[in-house]
Design a protein that fits this description.
Number of strands: 0
Radius of gyration: 22 Å
Number of helices: 10
């Protein structure tokens, strides 16, 4: 087996994103295709030994760097948006500074994802993790100018700034916060025990795509119907509150405002 070879499998060298970095990608692709037809190739001792060697040689150290990178990114983003939403304009300078750090790291993530897409454009969007990362990246790119705009407009037109915050900025922040979880799961595949659990969950979600689409359509339809009939009630006054009320009635069985 050439030292640059790599393959897929439930092992750290494959599971951690961008840690294998083979010098000859055609060898990696050959092993991937072979393992899709016969998984026993992963169990052979020479191949497992080669994967373990590559992991110990440089994969593990790079994975640890990715963990530090992600923790810094997630912490700076969540703390900054929390300070802006809870503390208001009193903490705006510190919060914007933290968000600037998160935005800078997000730009680095953007170029990483762009490199992945350019290397495998046909298969990039077949991965749920790649789709989630793409949405997260563009959500943060959209939040940055909105926060800057709110910061400078707040003293001029508070009503417009508040409306923009509740209608656009905060929903985007909520979406980005939720998408931090799949990004963390993608990174945790570098751990052998966690890698198995993440792979299992992804397989379950993939098999439930039709069911989840049906539930999402039902939720959206019920939310719109009730908001048209009960628009005067607080629970259906906005799109967000209407969706939450419909979700509570459908999945929790009751709703207590």
């Amino acid at each position: 087996l050439p030292p640059s070879g790599s393959t897929t499998g439930l092992c750290p060298a494959h599971s951690a994103p961008r840690t294998a970095n083979p010098a000859a990608p055609t060898i990696r692709q050959a092993f991937v295709r072979a393992s899709e037809k016969d998984m026993r190739i992963i169990g052979c001792e020479p191949l497992r030994a080669a994967i373990a060697f590559k992991w110990r040689a440089f994969g593990k150290a790079r994975w640890y760097r990715q963990i530090i990178f992600y923790v810094t990114f997630a912490s700076s983003f969540t703390v900054s948006v929390s300070m802006l939403n809870i503390g208001g304009h009193e903490n705006s300078t510190s919060a914007l500074s933290l968000f600037a750090l998160a935005s800078f790291l997000n730009v680095l993530y953007f170029f990483e994802e762009l490199g992945e897409y350019c290397s495998e454009p046909d298969t990039y969007f077949k991965s749920l993790f790649n789709i989630s990362d793409t949405v997260l990246t563009f959500a943060l790119l959209a939040i940055a100018p909105l926060l800057i705009f709110e910061y400078f407009v707040a003293g001029i037109d508070d009503e417009y700034s508040t409306t923009l915050k509740y209608a656009v900025t905060e929903p985007l922040e909520a979406i980005a916060t939720m998408l931090l979880l799949p990004k963390a799961a993608k990174l945790l595949r570098g751990n052998e025990q966690m890698g198995f659990l993440v792979t299992l969950l992804v397989a379950i979600i993939s098999d439930m795509q039709a069911f989840l689409l049906l539930m999402a359509s039902t939720l959206a339809t019920a939310s719109l119907a009730f908001s048209l009939l009960l628009s005067g009630f607080t629970e259906y006054g906005t799109v967000g509150s209407s969706l939450w009320t419909a979700y509570s009635l459908m999945f929790l069985g009751q709703y207590e405002p």
